[in-house]
Amino acid sequence: MNIKQIIVIIAAFGLASPAQAESLLEVYQQALQSDPRIHEAEARRLAALEAEPQARSLYLPQIEANASFDDLESSGTSIFEDSSGLPVSVYTKNEVEDTQWSIDLRQTIFRWDQIVGLRRADKLVAKAEADREAAQQDLIIRVGQAYFDVLGAEDRLTARDANRQAISRQLEQAKQRFEVGLIAITDVQESQAAYDQAVADEIAAKRNLAVAREGLREITGTYVAKLDAPGEELPLRDPEPAAEIDWVDLALDQNLALVASRLDEQLARDEISFRRSGHYPSLDLVARKSDFDRDADRIVGGISTIADTDLASDSIGIQFNLPIFSGGGTSSRVKEAVYLHRASMQVLQRITRETERQTRDAYLGVLSEKRRVEALAQSVKSSRTALEATQAGFDVGTRTIVDVLNSQFSLYSAITLHYQARYDYLMNYLRLKQAAGTLQIQDLEAIDQWLEDRETPEEKIADRERQEAES
Known about the structure:
The chain has two domains: 19-58 and 111-166 and 192-279 and 326-470, Outer membrane efflux proteins (OEP) (Up-down Bundle); 61-109 and 282-321. It is built from twelve helices and seven strands. The protein has helices at 3-14, 24-34, 36-49, 51-57, 112-179, 185-220, 244-254, 256-276, 329-396, 401-436, 441-448, 457-470; strands at 62-81, 87-110, 229-230, 282-300, 303-306, 309-321, 451-452. Helix 5 (112-179) packs antiparallel against helix 10 (401-436) and helix 9 (329-396) runs antiparallel to helix 10. The two termini are 13 Å apart. The relative contact order is 0.14.
């Protein structure tokens, strides 16, 4: 038993329990638990939800308690002249203890900035919800793209490996025919050049597959070794509703990026009103309860006196405040808010146009990729027939080895393009739903039912090597 056979046997034992293929929905659920972007969006949503209780708290009574205790002791000698002009020295000592406390209550009666703040808080919460939903839809798109990128990279590697194997057989045949004088050395050299190029292409395909798998791992947090792929019975349907304008209308009404942009514009408008409140009066109900207690002992010239104080007070009233002049700062801040509102209106206009373009593009993408899949399916059949005819012509001497290699490469390219067109069709379907704002996990479930288990390129290569070793 040679070394190659031993290696193949070891590989066969390693594949005795092949990895279980994971579906698109299973990969999405992994990403939902691990993707940093979706967790960031959820944390930002929770933070934004606090805007409402913060704004509402300003309308509730504001109660503040203060207390202090001071202990003062001083002593010293004073010198002054008496009525006869003689200096007199007087010793003075003070001991004072002050204890005071107060409770203040302030209840807003009218403050325009707080009214606007409540209105803005509702919009902030609504925008946070829209952003979180948009992040979830974006996760579906990112998972789908990464998932199909892996499948596409596997298809290309499978095609490159099959192409290399076929060229290897052609190279062996060319060498044998050259040895018996049936073909020229140039045919052998062309086969060798094609084989060397095929080896290089396969190496690049393996690299691209590794990159694609890393891209999926970045989202899911785990390495996924095997994925389900669309089966041959994958249905190709036109968008429903069928009219493009219906999708555009739906997107202009429900697209989450557009919804968030509308809320941004409304928040910018509210900011103008909020800053204008710097010119408006405010009215508050103010109540206060306080107590002051002083224990004071004083000694002057040997005579001790007591000056204690105990005061308690209660007050309630209405406080009115009217800003008159703030150096132009309030007016400047209002102008700043006006300009920012104009900018937000332009952003809204831009996103509206982008949404319409993206919706139309995705709609046309579904239709075109559907027809492209159908055309490429026919191209695969035609390429296979062409290869058989070219091979037959080569066998009888009417076609060259270059013709066979070209037909062979065309067949594998057609197969790869056919599979890639199916992935593009599914991604355009998901992007159309995202543009319309209706993309949900149920859309992944609908795709999932048409996916089935298939061998990875590594498994196919191991199977082929095992079969070659057994033969």
